[in-house]
Request: fold
Amino acid sequence: MPADEVVRAGQLLGRRVYDARGRKLGKVTDLITRPDADGQERTVAVLVSHGRRGRLLGYERSSQRGPWLLAWLAKVVHRGTREIPWSEVHWSP
Reply:
């Protein structure tokens, strides 16, 4: 997808993504955005998981804190979830 193309999150969530060699990375479970120089939110990375088991609550990210039981459970259920920089995401093999 071109960098300046406007796309709804719903069009990306659940889609399979691949690396530069065409190997399957998994399915998009979340988008990570940051404001650019103009203050507009831009997607900078995606969270990818091999299987979508329930909703992501944020606890699967190491930077998030919360009740230890929920954090532990999210890590178990969402193990293998990883962050892929937007520049490394390919939508077809």
In short: The radius of gyration is 14 Å. The beta strands are 16-18, 24-35, 41-49, 82-85.
